[in-house]
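BUG-413 | component: ligand-complex export | severity: low

The export step for S-adenosylmethionine jobs runs without errors, but we want the raw record kept on the ticket for reference. Input record follows.
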Amino acid sequence: GSTHNPKSQCPSSPPPSLKPHHLLSSFCLLPNPPSLVETISSSSHIDISPWTHPPICELTNDRGGQYCTYTNSHHGHRGWSIVTTPTRAADVASWFLDLPLPVNGDSKKKKWEVVEIPGKGKGVVARERIEQWEELIVDYATLVVDVGFTVEVDALRGYKLLHKAVEQMGDGGTGVMELGKSSEYAQDVVEDVLRTNAFSTRVGEGDFMAVYPTVSVILSSLNARHVISNKADKNQNSAYTRFVQESLQVSIAASKTILPGEEITISYLTLGKTSSERAHLLKRWGFTCSCPLCTSSPEEIAASDHRRKEIAKLQDHAIRAFQANKPYQALRLTRQILPLLPKEELFPLESEQLENMSRIYWVLNDMENAERYAKESLEVLARQGYIKSVEGWMVRRMWERFEEEEGPRGVRY
Ligand SMILES: C[S@@+](CC[C@H](N)C(=O)[O-])C[C@H]1O[C@@H](n2cnc3c(N)ncnc32)[C@H](O)[C@@H]1O
């Protein structure tokens, strides 16, 4: 199965290896997450901490379960609310209690500002030079909604919970309500904000949509790639997102040097999509893409699409080969993926592929190569800022994870 407890993936979190992955990756803030203590699910005596408001609930359409709005109006810059099941809320609450509360305002001087950008609404622009891999924004989720809720609870009752979630925040909901709205599918204003601004992420065992108010102002350039030309730099998103699942925190880091006055952009879409997939997914935001990749020549677009399809195909085949106990074939396929990634600027996928190499060698009990690739993968993560430095225990943790997922090493072949 592909359900994964992110906590078991520490310390190198990007997507679970050799399994179909989601790009929105995470890393572990706490090497040893606190154990889960159910606080809310026992309905006889409801302890509402760490929430500042009693939960408000609605039954699911089949009447078999419920979803509730939980709010802590002090946490982060304007408080946050989560709409989920009582069990999942209890899970979140248990580790949430142990997290240091983010303080209002930033100690570091901001190197960016929010400005109005003609034709694009608000956007974020650099005020000072920002170095490659530098972290420039740290933001906390303010509205978190269980994906299950959107299908299991009737729309009208659902909107009630969403509106409560927003109104109960520290600022009365103004921060969330001021965010961009652009979805032609939304029936309700909070739904529109969600559709326009939310990231999908995993929290514990569940899939969620999460709104990060500062990150929400950043524009998209659809992870364009370098067109092989002198304009190369203009075609790259200047920044990327790093999720910290345990604290519902996200940080934005520079993927290249950003000069004063330059727009800061991130990809709104899972990386690696082809042009037609991007056009389809982009409908959610209701703007026409004018980024350099979208407006480059048909030949250039076709060449990029071809490479992206090739990457996806190789990944798929590598997974199948590995699962079919054909490790050498899986190695060969994975090796072919690596050089294609920089051409499409899919650098966040690099560490995953290196970890896959390590995993295959580990299963083959070739520990020299397993260790070499494990370290390379961690070095990439460190360079990209997902971890601070490469340490011995991280490699050992990787072996533990491989053993958990693949069984004891060296017995299969
Ligand atoms: C997450 S919000 C970004 C902030 C938004 N501009 C605002 O004023 O709140 C997404 C919306 O920004 C606009 N947007 C983002 N990237 C854009 C781009 N590359 N070109 C035009 N509009 C863009 C679209 O209206 C989109 O629905």
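Assignee comment: Attached the raw record above. The chain has two domains: 34-274, 298-406.
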